[in-house]
């Protein structure tokens, strides 16, 4: 029995066990399998482990998407999560090449995936408060938002949660160093039903401003002269 002789339900079930690349490669073999690849039921869950994966054409975005995870654990994450003023020219060039990759992808999700239920972002150093704000506005059913080591996330995201996260039940902002205790307390006060976790966030040293860097450099030169 040839695989194409199976009914649509069986084929979708078989495809569900394959990774994105395998699904795409199988879809290239015949029109029937391409139709299975394009079945919305196949794309309710998406996991990505590198920003490069977001640019591939081996998946579909649409209203069927319920769960999305972008977790980048590469050593290069440390570079992108370093304060901008501390990066050398090579590091800045590296970060600039993919600075908008995740943000642009999330804005696409906002427009095409209104039924999203959970979002997990880890190591996404370029994701901004505005991205999360737009997601909360455009995905009103979002129940779980987990952010880890996303250094550009600030109290503005926490405020957006209190204003637009009516369906939210779980919020993690672990190792997000620019989140403050005041912002966390505000969420606990205004959204008591939300399970909030902020491991290390408010206790980490926030990004230093360029002015502070200049002051540190001047102080260092004075010490050397002394």
Automatic annotation (TrEMBL):
Question: Gene Ontology terms, cellular component aspect?
Answer: SCF ubiquitin ligase complex
Q: Which GO terms describe its biological process?
A: SCF-dependent proteasomal ubiquitin-dependent protein catabolic process
Q: Where is each F-box domain found?
A: 3-44
Give the matching SUPFAM superfamilies.
F-box domain, RNI-like
What PANTHER family does this protein map onto? PARTNER OF PAIRED, ISOFORM B-RELATED (PTHR13318)
Q: Which organism is it from?
A: Sylvia atricapilla (blackcap)
Gene it is expressed from: Fbxl22
According to UniProt, the name of this protein is FXL22 protein
Q: From which domain of life does this come? A: Eukaryota
Keyword annotations from UniProtKB, A to Z? Leucine-rich repeat, Ubl conjugation pathway
């Amino acid at each position: 029995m040839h695989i194409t002789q199976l009914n649509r339900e069986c084929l979708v079930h078989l495809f569900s066990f394959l990774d994105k690349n395998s699904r795409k490669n199988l879809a290239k073999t015949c029109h029937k399998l391409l139709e299975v690849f394009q079945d919305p039921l196949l794309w309710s869950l998406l996991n990505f482990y590198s920003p490069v994966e977001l640019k591939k054409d081996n998946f579909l975005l649409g209203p069927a998407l319920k769960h999305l995870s972008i977790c980048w654990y590469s050593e290069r994450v440390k570079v992108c999560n370093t304060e901008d003023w501390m990066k050398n020219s090579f590091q800045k060039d590296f970060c600039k090449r993919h600075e908008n990759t995740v943000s642009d992808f999330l804005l696409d999700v906002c427009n095409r995936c209104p039924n999203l239920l959970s979002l997990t972002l880890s190591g996404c150093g370029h994701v901004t408060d505005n991205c999360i704000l737009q997601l909360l506005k455009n995905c009103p059913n979002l129940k779980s938002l987990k952010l880890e080591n996303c250094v550009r996330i600030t109290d503005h995201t926490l405020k957006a949660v209190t204003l637009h996260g009516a369906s939210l039940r779980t919020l993690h902002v672990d190792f997000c160093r620019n989140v403050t205790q005041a912002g966390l307390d505000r969420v606990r006060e205004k959204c008591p039903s939300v399970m909030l976790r902020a491991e290390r966030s408010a206790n980490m040293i926030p990004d230093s401003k360029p002015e502070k860097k200049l002051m540190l450099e001047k102080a260092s030169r004075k010490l050397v002269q002394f």
